[in-house]
Design brief:
Number of strands: 12
Shape: elongated
Radius of gyration: 25 Å
Oligomer: single chain
Largest sheet: 6 strands, mixed
Number of helices: 7
Order of helices and strands: EEEHEEEEEHEHHEHEHEH
Amino acid sequence: MTNLPEDPRYIDDENYIYLDKDGNAQKMIEVTVHWNPVPKQVILVTVSKNDSLSYLCFRIGEAMEKYSTFSGLTNLRAINLTNNQVLLPKIGTIGDYIKTGDHLTCDIASNDIWIDVQVECSLIQLVISFEIKVSFTIPNETLQYSLVEIVNKVLNTRSVPFQYEESDIQLKKVLIEQQQTEGSQDYKKNAAGPNINRKLAVDLRKGQQVGDELDYLNRYVICSLEKRKKSEFDLSQAANSSHSYTVNDTFNDLTCTFPIRSLKVEPKVYSNPYEMKSHNKIQNESMSRQKMCHCDCF
């Protein structure tokens, strides 16, 4: 099979000839595709004029996998494909509706989504971040359970002397403003970086599915963990467990309900010294109360 030139400088504006595996000549066309939410991001797709429109949708999804947001998603494909603002049918031949040089727009769909998660463990001043791939159709409660499962497994590898429960977690999604997506591929830096705009964070609603709350742009979730039943563990032990948290090869061996990637564990960095002093004061007072004798005579 003849190798197709990948460098646009070696591709003519007109149709060019491509020989398939049987040696039959096929006319190929190259089209430019824009994703509707971020129109400045462009991909090029080369297909045969005789291919179906559904195959073109598959090829567009295949090309979108070069972005980490879409990498490895199930049944990734283009939907609502338009040419010059005219919606194309789902069934038909590419050559009947599209020619070389056309600029198409589309939406993207898949069965699942990568959710970018930032977990804040205030008790031990720790931040755990990772991405988890889940189906759009799972309930938010299943996502919550899975996040607690991952956090506990990570803390177990670091010998933290307690486990979190589902009641200890609060989930919020970070909303992306439209202007944040324009001209930038680093949506996380804008939306969920170290200086998160808490005004753009809203609770994930119970009883809803992941697909009702999150999408490919709004896929950033903040998890706040606060131990509700403090009598079950020693606060002094927890405080002493907050050092030496670094990325470790043992994290690669974690087995979880859903696939995860880009797992990092880091000390919590406070935005200002007052916030850190306030946290330490509360923690020290809690530890002092715990060390007091609880005999009846007192």
